[in-house]
Design goal:
The complex is a heterodimer of chains A (295) and B (319). Chain A is mostly helical and 295 residues long. Chain A is built from 11 helices and 2 strands; from the N terminus they run H-H-H-H-E-E-H-H-H-H-H-H-H. Chain A is globular, with a radius of gyration of 19 Å. Chain B has one domain. Chain B is 75% helix and 1% strand. Chain B is globular. The N terminus of chain B is likely disordered. Classes of the chains: A mainly alpha (295), B mainly alpha (319). At the A-B interface, helix 4, helix 9 and helix 11 of A face helix 5, helix 11 and helix 13 of B.
Chain lengths: 295, 319
């Protein structure tokens, strides 16, 4: 039996990763819930968020709050990029079969992935952690980085914030209604076209934010788009596509499985994750906390 | 079958079979060019074309979007290569072994997948193919893992690129002949009926899931054949072959050519591979170009290239 403090640290780092998964997956899940588009490019938005943060940080290198400005700018830039793509291209494909939308977002993966390589090269980039969160906290004789604690708090904060918006505001009610029946919502006088764009912008912003925040603790490399999107797919499949709580649950499960799986059975961890995803899909295709799609 | 079976089917069968024979005869002349480049490219196109056409039996004919087709390609490739390399089994038997493995893999995976519909079907096929990928990737002692399986030799009697080209041509031509018989048989017609409306097909007393599963297995069989050819052709195998972008690429090939035409995926594979050969000699950013082509295609040629030509009545003179 390993040291309990070690187990705690391990589960906390799993929790940190889960928060990133949650941020990105909730955007994907939101977009799928409303637009019924499975956005492969969501991982690319995450990657671009990280690259843009690197870029902005290098502009504000002497500013102590430079990192935070960079996070703000890059996540907003990604939100705008998402809005632009939805308005100019994706919206024209809604009348087509689902496969067309899926393949268009895959085309974006290819295009954006290479654009990032053209602009930032194929090397590994990194940025330092922000000044005020440089330290580490002592938890039962082990040290845990302050930045990770910040991420865990922020993740739960954002989950709470979105829950309030979804359940306690007029916008939230409209979004939930759109997930159930968009034709009816349109007939009731809500501008569904605009709603789709807004939802896509919010979803993209979440992906961009995830990328921006992961920049100080992960290597910024080409290929991080394809790697994250598959993990995020697992999260939403386990939790339930379009389900808010399901996404949180899926992220927490996957975060712990990755964190401990690598420790216990490094070879089989990755296989185990896919088997888990398969079992959920076979027994409950709409996910643990999701609802079956009516259409 | 009723009047349909007697009039229309034999005609299209004859025409397509004639076309396959003419095409094969023309392609048989390719080695006369003496160009190693074209023989190499031709072999590659034939293999990937067969792979794309195997997918299209599900995609275009049955209306099932499989997002994990690389699994059967990979199962075929690794089974054939491992049987030859590790078990020392002669090539023809290893080749048959790959076919059996492809069908069995498709049977097991398809058994679960056909229970789901639409996006859930696509995701489950993806999940299963990722399991296969993860096993190949992690089972170092058997598959070589990340470093790959290197040094798969041609069997002695196929040990030249021209000979292997002819072998591939024969295998692919026979496979195409079989595939077109399948899609024009009463069985194939029912697959198309399922594509158009699974509920109504169920109402007229067809066991839809069983038909879909059989289509899945046939598709897996031909994907495994193309995979087995691919492994020997390349002399080496890497787990990347089974990773999900590979499944996406073969989907793109099918879509580019046109999923509602028999030869569409072959046309798509030809265009993609030829362009990749051209583009990669100038720039490393082939994915960028392919993404742009794909996006362009989705907006302007939704029926694929063959669909577009058909709409413009280019094939009228053939009739």
């Amino acid at each position: 039996m390993p040291d309990p403090s070690f187990l705690l640290i391990q589960s906390l780092s799993g929790l940190t990763y889960a928060m990133f998964l949650f941020l990105i997956a909730s955007g994907l899940s939101l977009i799928f819930g409303i637009l019924r588009v499975l956005n492969f490019a969501h991982g690319s938005f995450y990657m671009l968020g990280a690259y843009l943060t690197y870029q902005f940080v290098s502009y504000f290198i002497n500013n102590p709050t430079g990192f935070w400005i960079a996070v703000l700018f890059s996540s907003i830039a990604i939100a705008l990029l998402g809005g632009l793509i939805e308005r100019l291209f994706l919206s024209r494909l809604y009348i087509r079969e689902e496969l067309n939308q899926l393949l268009f977002t895959y085309a974006l993966v290819l295009i954006l992935g290479d654009l990032a390589k053209i602009v930032w090269g194929t090397g590994q980039l990194s940025i330092p952690r922000p000044q005020i969160l440089k330290g580490a906290v002592k938890i039962m004789d082990q040290y845990f980085p302050e930045y990770n604690i910040f991420i865990i708090c922020l993740g739960f904060g954002i989950a709470f914030f979105f829950w309030i918006i979804l359940n306690r505001t007029r916008w939230g009610r409209i979004i939930r209604a759109a997930a159930l029946d968009r034709e009816m919502l349109n007939a009731l006088g809500v501008n569904v076209t605009k709603l789709f764009t807004v939802v896509f912008i919010i979803g993209s912003w979440l992906a961009g934010l995830g990328g921006a925040l992961v920049a100080p603790i992960a290597a910024i490399v080409p290929g991080m788009d394809v790697e994250i999107i598959i993990n995020v797919f697992i999260v939403v499949v386990i939790g339930g596509l379009g389900s808010f709580w399901g996404t949180l649950l899926g992220a927490l499960v996957l975060g712990q499985v990755i964190s401990f799986g690598i420790l216990i059975l490094p070879r089989l961890a990755i296989v185990f994750i896919y088997i888990l995803m398969t079992i959920v899909l076979i027994t409950r295709p709409w996910g643990l906390l999701g609802k079956p799609l009516s259409r | 079958m009723g009047p349909f079976g007697k009039t229309i089917i034999p005609l299209t069968m004859l025409k397509r079979e004639k076309f396959i024979i003419i095409l094969t005869a023309l392609l048989a002349l390719l080695p006369l060019s003496q160009s190693r480049f074209y023989i190499f490219l031709g072999t590659d196109i034939l293999i990937m074309g067969l792979f794309a056409m195997s997918l299209n039996l599900l995609l275009g004919y049955t209306g099932l979007v499989s997002f994990g087709h690389a699994a059967y390609f990979g199962i075929g490739a690794y089974t054939c290569a491992l049987l030859m390399k590790k078990a020392g089994i002669i090539f023809p038997l290893a080749f048959i072994g790959a076919m059996v493995a492809g069908v069995l893999g498709a049977l097991i995976i398809g058994f679960f997948c056909v229970r789901l519909t639409k996006i859930y079907f696509a995701m489950l096929t993806l999940a299963f193919s990722q399991i296969v990928w993860a096993i190949v990737f992690k089972w170092n002692s058997l598959t070589g893992g990340d470093t790959g399986l290197i040094g798969i030799d041609f069997p002695a009697y196929l040990d030249s690129s021209v000979r292997f080209y002819y072998f591939t041509l024969v295998v692919v031509a026979v496979s195409l002949g079989l595939l077109q018989r399948i899609v024009n048989s009463p069985f194939g017609r029912i697959l198309t009926t399922i594509r158009e409306n699974p509920e109504r097909t169920e109402f007229i007393g067809v066991n839809v899931k069983l038909y879909q599963l059989i289509a899945f297995m046939i598709s897996g069989l031909f994907a495994a054949i193309s995979g087995a050819l691919f492994g020997i052709f390349n002399h080496s195998l890497f787990p990347d072959l089974l990773y999900w972008p590979q499944s996406a690429e073969v989907l793109i090939m099918s879509l580019l050519g046109g999923i509602y035409s028999f030869f569409g995926p072959l046309v798509g594979a030809t265009i993609i591979l030829y362009m990749r050969m051209l583009v990669t000699s100038y720039t490393q950013y082939w994915p960028f170009i392919m993404g742009t082509i794909l996006a362009f295609l989705l907006f302007f040629f939704p029926g694929g290239i063959v669909g577009f030509l058909r709409e413009k009545k280019v094939f009228k003179w053939l009739k």
